[in-house]
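User: We ran a pulldown and think these components assemble together. Before we commit to crystallization trials, I'd like a predicted model of the whole complex to look at. Sequences follow.
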Amino acid sequence: MKSHAFALRLLLLAAAPLLVDCSSTANTSSVKAGSSDVAKGKAADKVGPEKDADADEYAAAPDISDPLEKLNRGTFWVNDQLYTFILRPISKGYEFILPRPVRKGIDNAFENVKYPVRVVNCTLQGKFKRAGQETGKFVVNTVGGVAGIFRPAENIPALANLPEEDTAQTFAKWGIPNGPYLVLPVLGPSSLRDGVGLAGDYALNPVNWPYLWWYAKRSKHDWVIVPPLANTLRSTPAQMDKYDSITKDAVDPYLSARSAYSQNRAEAIKK
Amino acid sequence: MILRYLLPLLLVAAPLAVSAQVAEAQTRLKTAVTEVLAVADRTANRAALPEKLRPVLQKYVNFDTMTKRAVGPGWKQFTSAQQQEASRLFSTLIIRSYSGKFTPGEHPDITYKPAVSLGADRVDVPTSMVYKGSHYTVVYRMEQMHITDVVIEGVSLVANYRSQLDAQYKKGGATAVISSLTQSVSRPQ
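Assistant: Here's a predicted model for the assembly, 460 residues in total across the polymer chains.
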């Protein structure tokens, strides 16, 4: 029972980073469909479509296998209801209460604290120069940016706009494949590899350390849940925006999210 | 014999032509962005923005090529009328989606990075954009001086729709593609 409760709380607390991935999803399993498959279309009844290099421009776009599509579509629907009726109202309330500069400062501080996630994964990928840059950025923003509320490092070209690194990207660099596409409850688009990576990111994020520490000690200090919850709350508006931008004008929101996820992750791994 | 003298000349001229093409693409993109922002600035009514932006976007974006690639190989099985209808619906969807990204009073801060020639009149113009406090990497893919794709944070707009429209085509051919686009366009905002 205890382990179930722990798993549930962990899942909920991890929702922030997960939702982030919504923005980056996507797939093109269908993109790779050959012209023979297309011939199944009604318009193609008489003659299969000819090869057209121009129309087939995107045949090689990033892809992810989706053997659990039926289950994933179900979870996607449940998540959509959850976002619509619970997370979006919470997000709107948060945006209503706090003005944007304050929210931005809070976001900056939480992102700054995630430094171990970035530096450990840079190091594990052999990107030692990037790890050094991350350290420089963390020091500059922590000292000069009042604990990371401001980002003075953005004004230093060598430290500005460093690509994000996470545990799943490290796994990918090590040659571990995506595995099947998964839509996680609450968190949304992921893959087997990225889902495991998410646990690594969770453990490396200092925001979660008090919770993990006190939980391991079976402590009753309820305050330890506050930092992870605050982290989830502050990141929800951005995640809702990303989710909306991917699904709002989609022909098939599920496929749009899957495609966006696989493309975004493929690009992040390249950087 | 003539080739002996012409070849070195061609070798020198080719990179120059490419660099001119790259510079022109970037200039054209900047012009397009400036025009779009000007229209967005003077359109107070957000609901009217898609129709206000349509002529500007049609001048700089090749919606026919985008639609063709978003549908994929099945495009050749569309009749001419179906192609036109699909292109009209797809452009409406893209323009509406694009218009929805504008927030009154907000201006993106765009940094244009060196454009890259991909050959055959194709140029990628990478940009770095800060909008509403968030940073985005956006690559504009241009062909013959028209935008044919936009890649935001690694996500290609055309590839994204391709995954959806291709699935529709497999279900029911051109009719299913047009029907799904019609449904998306008529969905209330």
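Chain B has a mean pLDDT of 87. That may be worth checking against your pulldown data before setting up trials.

User: Thanks, that helps.
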